[in-house]
Structures are given as C-alpha cells and as structure tokens.
Amino acid sequence: MALRVIFFYLLLAGLVALTWWRGRSDDRLAAAVCVGGTALTVLVGNKLDIHGSDFDFGAFLGDGIIFIAFLVIALRSARFWPMWVAGLQLTTVSVHLLMILSPDLPGLIFGTALAFWSYPILLLIAIGAWRTPVVERWRAAHDIASRRAIT
Question: Residue 145: which residues within 8 A CB-CB, separation 6 or more?
Fold first, then answer.
C-alpha cells in the first residue's frame, strides 16, 4: 500500500475521532460521508489511481453521490463550512467531466487533481468540528443577550 494512502487513512481516522469528540451531527455526518466515500472508492476498484487518465464511470458516480451528500449537509446546516466542502467535492466531480472533454491531457494531471481535493475536504471538516463548541457558546451568549425582560 502506498505511503500516501496510509497517510490518508490515518487522517481519515483522526477526523472521525475528532468529530465524535468535539463535533455535532453535521460534523459527524460529513465524516461518515468521507468514510463511505473512501469505502465506495475502494469498492469500485479505483481504476484511475493517480496515474490513470481514462474516464471511470464508477468513480464518477461515486464522487457524484458524495457531492450530493455534502450538498444536502450544506443545505441543512447552520454552519458555513459544509458549503465549502460541497464546493470542493464539486471540483472533484468537474475533473471527471474534464477527462471526457480533454482525454489527450496527461493522466497525472487528472489523477493528482482527483486525489488532491480530498485533503482540504478533511481539513475543513476537522476545523468545523474543532470550532463547533466555540460557535455554540457564541450563539448561546448572543441568544441570551438578545432576549428582553418580560415586564
């Protein structure tokens, strides 16, 4: 197994632990989507790898499903980070479409672009989970301050 794959799995495990420790439902659901997406990528065989340049419908479908899941989380959430995550996943989906439009480009460009966006997605979810208690305290303080005394 490649070192970058082991590194990604360790980051993913750390993200899951962090979301269960500090996160709430949005954070945990996003981490679960990442775990499910990773499992789905392994399940479809990951024919692209980092050097492949052929369009892989299974990988495209999997990334599309992951994008829809992130979009649903973003539309239901009161936080802003899920919108960033959905946008980065949309970038991944668009790379698949570029593979159809520009099959002459070297496969390394496509493979690297597909692999790259996973790391910022994990980072954004981790930052969102880490900041969840802070945001909740801030919202609670402002909610109490905005209430008027009953007279």
Answer: none
- CB-hemisphere CA count at 13 Å for 80? 1
CATH of the domain at 79: 1.20.120
Give the number of domains in the chain: 1
Q: Cβ atoms within 10 A of the Cβ of 8, count?
A: 16
Q: Within 10 Å of residue 68's Cβ, how many Cβ atoms?
A: 14
Task: Please report, for residues 20, 60, 85, 112, the alpha-carbon distance to residue 15 in angstroms, rounded to integers and kept in the order given.
Answer: 9, 24, 14, 22
107: alpha, beta or left? (left if phi > 0; alpha if psi -120 to 50): alpha
121 in Cβ contact with 34 (< 8 Å): yes
What are 69-122's pLDDT values in tens digits?
999 999 999 999 999 999 999 999 998 888 888 877 777 777 787 788 899 999
Residue 31 lies in a domain: yes
More confident residue, 42 or 75: 75
Helices (H), 23-150: 25-43, 57-76, 81-101, 107-116, 118-146
**Closest to 111 in 3D by CA, of 122, 101, 98:** 98
- Give residue 70's domain range: 3-140
